[in-house]
Design goal:
The chain has 114 residues and is α+β, with helices and mostly antiparallel strands. It is 25% helix and 23% strand. Bound molecules: 2'-deoxyguanosine-5'-monophosphate.
Length: 114
């Protein structure tokens, strides 16, 4: 059995509030939302983090960015603005070692992040 939590969510072995699915990516709501909209976008293919992205993933990441923009419009956060962020490694606070992007919006955000 695959031990990766996000692989298991992508395979629908672990329940999640899925808001988008294609052949290559899945979007689902974060279990611990940090903003009114907090969606995680993951590649179905297991990649540990942005550190491990290779050229072959370029098309999938293009789709992921277009999906983020589409979901931002669908969530009604496009006008106010949104953030798309991926954490790599312990200093950034990466806790799940499967490439994912946080789509956050619906409130004023600070910069730099904490
Ligand atoms: P990061 O810290 O960048 O690795 O983000 C991991 C995110 O994953 C964190 O915001 C919480 C979320 N998360 C962890 N476990 C689950 C889960 O079982 N379901 C859902 N929907 N989100 C989860």
């Amino acid at each position: 059995m695959n031990e990766c939590l996000f692989c298991r969510i992508a395979a629908r072995e672990v329940p999640a509030d899925v808001v988008h699915e294609s052949d290559h990516i899945v979007g689902f709501r974060d279990i611990n939302p940090q903003a009114p909209t907090h969606i995680l976008l993951i590649t179905k293919e297991h990649v540990s983090s942005a550190r491990d992205v290779d050229e072959d993933l370029g098309k999938v990441l293009g789709e992921l960015f277009r999906t983020a923009a589409h979901l931002a419009r669908a969530e009604g956060i496009d006008e106010g603005g949104w953030r798309l962020v991926t954490n790599v490694g312990p200093d950034a606070g990466q806790s799940v070692h499967h490439l994912h992007f946080h789509l956050l919006g619906g409130r004023q955000m600070d910069w730099p992040p904490g």
